[in-house]
Amino acid sequence: MRLIILGAPGSGKGTQAMFIKKKFHIPQISTGEILRDVIRSNNKNNFKNKIYNDIKKGNLISDNIIIDLVINRLKCSDCINGYLLDGFPRTLSQAHAMKEAGIIIDNILEIYVSDSEIIERIIGRRIHASSGRIYHNKFNPPKIHGRDNITGELLVQRDDDTIEVIKNRLSIYHKQKKILLDYYKNLETFKIFGFPRYHRINGSFSIDQVRNNIFSILIKN
Ligand code: AP5
């Protein structure tokens, strides 16, 4: 099972990716998480400050950095039976690089949600930084307010989860999405080798409903 999960920031990709990886036993490769790990690590990485500043402003990280990170990650042995790419590709160059590297995708899941819902989700989101577990003050609250369900550690708000930054992230997303969608629709129409099937999923339902809809698509495909 080789999947891409696409969607606007805050549409629920990370939340659903957690369910998919558990059910289908495939690793979730979240470019956002990989980048946040680079920022948190003590390793000397030449691009660390640049990555930090770009994420904080809601800008995309340059294609060459992201492409290297993902292609190297996909070489790991846990990807042999499949993978779930979460947040990659986001640009046409990333999609082309993936194809050139021979990375095959069977299904693309696009979660769509209105921008107004996105803003409410982003503002109330809290995360457990070291595990990436995702909560929401209203829609998915932890058992104890402000604490991770498993470790009891404090939850935090991401630096890029502010109204100003989310507006920038959304505007970048809408521009890139059209280009990517055209690219994948074209592959599908002409049945080009390795073409993935494209599925649109309404992400406005509850977390459990969205999960069930995704599972039924994946089981059929
Ligand atoms: P990344 O971490 O990938 O952020 P994103 O794409 O902006 O997506 P989010 O993580 O914000 O949202 P999500 O869709 O996972 O939603 P979630 O499940 O958390 O990337 C961060 C940055 O890294 C980018 O801005 C960029 O700078 C850089 N980057 C990453 N990849 C890159 C790439 N390929 N190229 C270049 N740069 C890249 O849900 C959101 C909230 O809603 C949560 O609180 C959740 O509990 C709640 N929720 C989820 N589902 C529902 C539901 N159905 N109903 C109600 N609430 C829900």
Structure description:
It is a single chain. With 221 residues, the chain is of the alpha/beta class. It folds into two domains: 2-114 and 163-220, P-loop containing nucleotide triphosphate hydrolases (Rossmann fold, 3-Layer(aba) Sandwich); 125-160, no CATH class. Helices cover 47% and strands 15% of the residues. It has eight helices and seven strands, in the order βαβαααβαβαββαβα. The protein has helices at 13-24, 31-40, 48-57, 63-74, 92-100, 115-124, 163-189, 207-220; strands at residues 2-7, 28-30, 83-86, 107-112, 125-128, 133-136, 197-202. The strands form two sheets. The protein has a five-stranded parallel beta sheet with strand order 2-3-1-4-7, sandwiched between helices. Strands 5-6 form a two-stranded antiparallel ribbon. A hairpin with a 4-residue loop joins strand 5 and strand 6. The longest helix has 27 residues, at 163-189. It starts with a strand and ends with a helix.
